[in-house]
Write a structure and sequence with these properties.
Elements: H1 7-12, H2 18-25, H3 29-40, H4 54-64, H5 66-80, H6 103-108, H7 111-123, H8 127-140, H9 169-179, H10 181-184, H11 190-211, H12 218-233, H13 240-255, H14 269-289, H15 296-311, H16 337-348, H17 351-356, H18 367-373, H19 375-383, E1 397-399, E2 404-409, E3 416-421, E4 436-440, E5 443-446, E6 468-469, E7 486-493, E8 498-504, E9 510-519, E10 529-538, E11 548-555, E12 564-566, E13 569-571, E14 580-583, E15 594-597, H20 598-605, E16 612-620, E17 625-635, E18 642-653, E19 657-667, E20 677-681, E21 685-690, E22 693-698, E23 706-708
Helix pairs in contact: 2-3, 3-11, 4-19, 5-7, 7-8, 8-11, 9-11, 9-12, 11-12, 12-13, 12-14, 14-15, 15-16, 16-18, 16-19
Amino acid sequence: MKNLISDKDFCSELKLDAEASQLFKRKQYKQAALHAARSAFAKPFAHPVKEQEIAAMAALINKEVPDQVALMEQQAKKYWMKAATPEPTNTKPLNHVRFQVPNTVQRSRGIAVYSLARLARLTGNKKYTQAAMKMLRELAGQYGDYPQGDNIGFYSWHPHTAGRAQSHTVAHMSQEFNMMMPFIRDQISDEDKLYLMKFQWTIADVAMRGFRMDQSFNLTLHFATPCHETALLFPVFKQSKKWIKWARFQLQEFYDSHGVTADGYTREGVLYQRVNHHLLELNMEYIKAAGHKVPKKLEKVVHNAHMFNANICPPDGYPPHVGDTTVYSPHEHWIHAHETLHLTAAITNKAIYKQRAGTPYYRKAQERNFWEMGLKKLQRYLKMPWGKASDLIQKPADHGESGFQILGNGQGNDRNFGALLFTQNHNHAHHDIGSIYIYAKGRPLISDPAGYGGPGSRNANPDSHSLAMLPRFSPAGPRLHTDHWAKSKFAIHNNKWQATSMQHRLYDGYKMQRTLVLIPGKKNGPDSFWVVLDKVTPDHPHPLGLHELVDTSFHFSAIETDLGIDGLQTWSQHDLKKKTATVYKTENFSDPGKKLDIQEFHEAYEMSNSNGNIQVAGFALAGTEFSLEQQQSHSSEYSGYVKRPAALYRYRGPLPAVFAYVLVPFTGIKKRKPINIDGQLKKNSFSFNVNGREVIVKNGFSKKISVNG
């Protein structure tokens, strides 16, 4: 802060020992404050990272991932040991690098400060500690003074913010500084200790004052977490007990009033599921380290979230690209889905999660994650067998309470993974109930454009998701606090086929139901395919049978390519040999744009890629008006916008109505229709033919569903 709390006021906020009290009485405020800071750092902190274990853990990390340590040193030399300078937003090494985040973000959020502190212990070189404290002062000095008073407001929606909107970046900084405490405790000067304590006191104080009255959700949790941590690390602060009480109230509100589900979903989308899970877990670990009793509900939520995160993770280690998620979300990369799986393996002592973790480019955990495991769990984790990716079997998972239904089969690279999303979100929510995600042939094939824009953003609109819509109406939400709007109808996982169905009432006066079916290939092999069934039912059908419009979108993961179209059938033409794409600043693609190296992008963000494509065939009841056209979609994961195609099926006719779609993955580029798909849709049955294979799906919208052939 430009003007941190004065030495006199700082001492007034402390429980001073006898010597500091005497100095204070003699009005030697600076000496009293320095003495108090020195005393607070005199003994190892009650911290999730035990100081006495650091040397042993550093040795293990240097042995296990020396390449990551070397990369950190390169980053320190090129970026962190120098003054902040603008850097290009591209995927060049050391800017966007594997296992890391853009260096601009690492600096602004204090991630680099904590990294430098760890690097000092990994290399034995104290210059990194000195650099960490120098950067800490630079970062803290960028912020102005915070106003006094309660409920002061931090974000634009708050009436007290009055044009001085802050972000949660400063809360990130405080959290990073708390994490580095055991690494720098005995390596920094008394002046640095005092400065650090003053900064942490300021953030803890303003966090409680700023959010004391606010409903708990992601953004309030971002501030409650460092406030809680600081109170536990520095009981010498007079307000520590008050901070702890408030922070734990916020935690309880988060998993009670906020509606965290029994299986650990925090109701803020796929991307922020991992953010929230990490924050909850950090709070729990700090409570344990302090020797306090962990609330049973918190422990259960964190444990269940590990299982939930593991179940919704596709084969390439990234979460399904639905709703708010995005590949370009590296500002907290250590909590990405594959990294969560590593941590899950260490905590649960189950090797299957270690075997499932990793990406096409790297399977080992990040250095930062090792520290959060602790020495015993790290040693246990390192002894776990890696196993072979080719042995991994994809299984379905029923998370109907949370709004995620997962279907899947196959083994190794031939695994098929599909998600039907109907979660009712609160923060960072999108109009995405009913959206699907399909992964097969080694890469995502149907996925949302993604991006975590809030209400009003382009990505929050229904047509940015792969679902059925009523284009003349606006759906409810997206900030839905209750579970009244959507529900799971059934989930069936048997040896011959899998199916799941959901229903929502986002459109006033209408029921929308979607069923997703996985039809396995021979021996559950790579020739599996999918069926999507949609039903739109009005509460009060018009007596004259007036026509209504129903639009259904499928967004193809195919950078800068056209779709092949043949009647009501369409297919992607993703070309693995394509080397570059154009990134635009805006989603209307009006600017000249700049070139993106596609392979470099995939490596930097560890995305899977292959020559996989997918064909979609649409069917409506005989005699109805049903059409297909290609639309311009985009991906927002590339530091901008990249063109990608979407298929729009449009129905015009009376309601209720049913629709069916067959989705068949294939490999290679096909100029003509790659697969012969014929079918006939009736009110209660759908029969179709895929390359001579006859399949009949009956009663697709009820638990009586059956699949033959």
